[in-house]
């Protein structure tokens, strides 16, 4: 029986990049996201280009019933997996007290709750004939307290710590966990505009999604625990350890204030 690579958030910019990278390597795919039409177009295109098996199933990972339908589909079709790439995540950028409770709850449910639940459930459907690999998408923001992205950055810190912790727990079961911590990626129009507002600094921290996907897979296959794309981003992460968190938060707040003034 063939085993699959499960990719969440597959119809987004980074999700598509991971899907294409895995397909190019000849791996069979199971793609999920909220929009069934986009998923079907993506799956059809990949099958035509790469002649691999591609299964797709729509799912709103913030909704318990939708997630249960996803796992029932997997159970009914007796599917097995050897790789999970947790891409699904979002941010509602803005001042904390100007954000709605619904927006904040969605960030937490998708970035944290869905990542934990998907990781836990898929291990019950792993292909025990092969090593199982997990990639969880965090962010460079995980390393800093970030005004204007307070809940998002904190959720990504959770993913970083969670991934490192379960990686230690699961390695005895032949499971490796790699956490991806990218800077900016031009994955959609909103993100591209945000990068532009940050000026030259935003450009320095940005990497192409195709490059990030390819190098992340290489790091996962090599059993690496953390991957930060780009030497400048690695330097930022290292320098961040030397500066008090309060000063970092103030510096980031000043940058966003300047970016907003420029816009």
Could you walk me through the main structural features you see in this protein, from its secondary elements to its overall organization?
The chain is of the alpha/beta class. The chain has one domain: 3-Layer(aba) Sandwich (Rossmann fold). Strands 3-2-1-4-5-6-7 form a 7-stranded parallel sheet, sandwiched between helices. α4 links the parallel β4 and β5. α1 packs across α8. The chain is globular and about 55 Å long. About 5% of the residues have low confidence.
Keywords:
7-stranded parallel sheet, Rossmann fold, 10 helices, 263 residues, 14% strand, alpha/beta
Mean pLDDT: 89
> What is the N-to-C order of secondary-structure elements (H for helix, E for strand)?
EHEHEHEHEHEHHHEHH
Largest sheet: 7 strands, parallel
CATH architecture classification = 3-Layer(aba) Sandwich
Summed up, the helix count is: 10
Q: Kindly give the count of domains.
A: 1
User: Which blocks of ≥5 consecutive residues have pLDDT under 50?
Assistant: 195-202
Q: List how many beta strands DSSP finds.
A: 7
CATH fold type: Rossmann fold
Class based on secondary structure composition and strand pairing: alpha/beta
Molecular shape? globular
Specify the CATH class.
Answer: Alpha Beta
Helix content: 40-55%
CATH superfamily, by name, is NAD(P)-binding Rossmann-like Domain
Distance between the termini: 54 Å
Q: Using only CA atoms, what is the Rg?
A: 18 Å
Strand content: 5-15%
Task: Give the spatial strand order of the biggest sheet.
Answer: 3-2-1-4-5-6-7
